[in-house]
């Protein structure tokens, strides 16, 4: 069976465009595009066969099945020929049952989907492997692409730089100067990307990279490019597979530019349409209170987007005031009976530290999602018997300064952390060490 997919307008304008076309918006109405699969062809294979195929490829040692994304390739990127696949063995990330953390919250089951264990330390790898593979094939077929470029608050630039380096394609990343962590900045530098640091915020960087992609032989790698969504939707497929082809009651995911929630919804919709799951989960998008345009829309019954000037937040990767994928996100949330929550700086920092006490090492964006979970429990939207998956979008190791600052009580806008754990400084005397040990064990 031959499978296929094409771009189409999210507003329903007639016509489709091949996935190797250099196009980012509908030429008729200017709205975003999405990838539409030939669902009739996919449905010709029974759900049981799809399950068996995906199970057989899961964490294989064979290329490209070792990738969590390319192990689902018929549902993701059937247009990419195998010789052009650029993979760093991304995806197939753990779904960690955080049972002691769930008990502390007063509910029965919480899983944390550890997307930060993938190659560059964030879920952005899932979409970038599809996009860069497509570009590699386009260049091989003669497309006039000199470089791939993105605006980024950190994780997107790391993923683009790594995959472009693996493919032998030039990468340019445009960053807001001084607004990303050192660990994030060093990744694109190490992988040889051209790094342009601008005195603006993410939204200002995004405006410039869109203009560059319109006027220069530069391919746009941000999530307004729906190829990214196709890779990221494998998070949904993996969650269902890891729960024995079932879904939780809730999935909570941090949201900035909002491509992630549209990807999450797209994955679950495919699973439902092809009979691999029987129902939809509810979805919550968690935003930082200092960058919360989707939350403000939700509070006004899904009012039209009113961009905000995003303020500095510890959750720097979602410090976005004018999200490109707003319409896609609202559509997904409506379909999944979704809600939007927000977290203040103390709330996100304390929620991350609370989960860490039970074995996590949560980055600040995951902290936003964990804080949203606490609020949903307080509102009785998440009940004791509900099963919840929190999507951890990046590795906490990329945010060591956030962790150190919390426990040293030096984080901006977190004056009184609830769970600090500073080292006890002692002289090298046995009695002092013993006394401190016993006090600590009794506390």
Question: What's a quick, concise take on this entry?
Answer:
The protein is α/β, with parallel strands linked by helices. It contains 17 helices and 13 strands.
Task: Note down, in words, how this protein is organized.
It is globular, with a radius of gyration of 22 Å. With 443 residues, the chain is of the alpha/beta class. The chain is 40% helix and 14% strand. It starts with a strand and ends with a helix. The strands form 3 sheets. Strands 4-5-13-10-11-12 form a 6-stranded mixed β-sheet, sandwiched between helices. The protein has a 4-stranded parallel β-sheet with strand order 8-7-6-9, sandwiched between helices. A 3-stranded antiparallel β-sheet has the order 2-1-3. It has a domain of 191 residues: Rossmann fold, CATH 3.40.50.
Secondary structure elements and pairings:
Elements: E1 5-9, E2 16-17, E3 33-37, H1 39-43, H2 47-57, H3 73-76, E4 95-97, H4 99-105, E5 109-114, H5 124-140, E6 147-151, H6 155-167, E7 171-176, H7 182-190, E8 194-198, H8 202-215, E9 218-220, H9 226-232, H10 234-242, E10 250-254, H11 259-273, E11 282-288, H12 293-299, H13 326-335, E12 339-343, H14 345-356, H15 364-378, E13 387-392, H16 400-407, H17 430-442
Parallel strand pairs: 5-13, 6-7, 6-9, 7-8, 10-11, 10-13, 11-12
Antiparallel strand pairs: 1-2, 1-3, 4-5
Helix pairs in contact: 5-6, 5-9, 6-7, 9-11, 10-11, 11-13, 14-15
